[in-house]
Amino acid sequence: MPPIPGSGLAKGLAVTLRTMTKKTVTAQYPDVQPELPPRSRGVIALFEENCTVCMLCARECPDWCIYIDSHKETVPAAAPGGRERSRNVLDRFAIDFSLCMYCGICIEVCPFDALFWSPEFEYAETDILDLTHERDKLRDWMWTVPEPPALDPHAEEPKEIAAARKTADKLRAQQEQQEQQEQQEQQEQQAQEAAAEAAAARPDAAQPDATQAAAAQEEAAQPDAARPDAAQPDAARPDAEEGKA
User: Fold this and answer.
1) In 3D, which of 110, 107, 183, 98 has the Cα closest to residue 145?
2) What are φ and ψ of residue 237, in 5° steps?
3) Is the bond leading into 30 cis (omega within 30 degrees of zero)?
4) What's 5's DSSP letter?
5) Alpha helices, DSSP H only, in the chain?
6) CA distance 144 to 162
7) CA distances (Å), 193 to each of 135, 189, 198, in order?
8) What distance in Å separates the CA atoms of residue 150 and residue 108, rounded to the nearest whole number?
9) Among 64, 128, 169, 232, whose Cα sits 20 to 30 Å from the Cα of 216?
10) Strand partners for 89
């Protein structure tokens, strides 16, 4: 069906009429700050403590607007007899926002969560050279990073959290087992000490038994002739002969 002549003009006038009936809203910027979406891409903030100078962000940046300088330091051994280690120390971390196209690749590839999006957008400069911000400025923007959104309660638990919880449960079980073993050993030691103290507090209780045992041994060791009450032969018994007579 061919279009009706003038239908486009009618649609345009309808849009104009609808817009004319709406209330005009003027953003009073900069007196009133705009309400930005939660994941607005303003500037890139740096959390310096997490940076290991792995250079992944600088290598993956399509605009080559990230500049990183570092040096190596020797870390002494943590235990006696251990081996010294070397680590990279960050000297410079700068981003040239005159070249940055806000693709977010550097934030995605960072394996240590050192880069974050900040909704801060008021960083205009009169000189293009001043748009290269060093790590101090990037660190200041870190405190404007909003908290991450809450996870879906019905979503699957991340593998990292599950692995960390499994390790923590294993360590907790080992600690509880060790504590139970130490308590059991302590109770046994206390019982032995109590028994020794009770035995030392009653020295006369075991003495009669020991005396009786010694007398029994001596009596058993004497020969029959040495016993005064031993059975005498019939010839030595005068009462036995009188009884016969």
Assistant:
1) 107
2) -105, 105
3) yes
4) T
5) 7-21, 56-60, 105-109, 135-142, 159-201, 207-221, 238-244
6) 30
7) 65, 6, 9
8) 19
9) 232
10) 71
Cα–Cα distance, 41 to 61 (Å, whole number): 16
- Whether residue 114 contacts residue 135, with contact meaning beta carbons closer than 8 Å, is answered with no
What 168-175 contacts at long range (C-beta under 8 Å, 24+ apart), as own/partner pairs, is: none
Q: What is the DSSP letter of 236?
A: G
Tokens at 188, concatenated: 């046994």
- Secondary element (H or E) of residue 38: none
Global pTM reads 0.54
Name the phi and psi angles at 142, rounded to 5. -60, -30
Strands 115-118 and 85-96 come out as unpaired
Quick: pLDDT tens for 195-237: 888 888 775 554 555 556 666 666 666 655 555 554 455 544 5
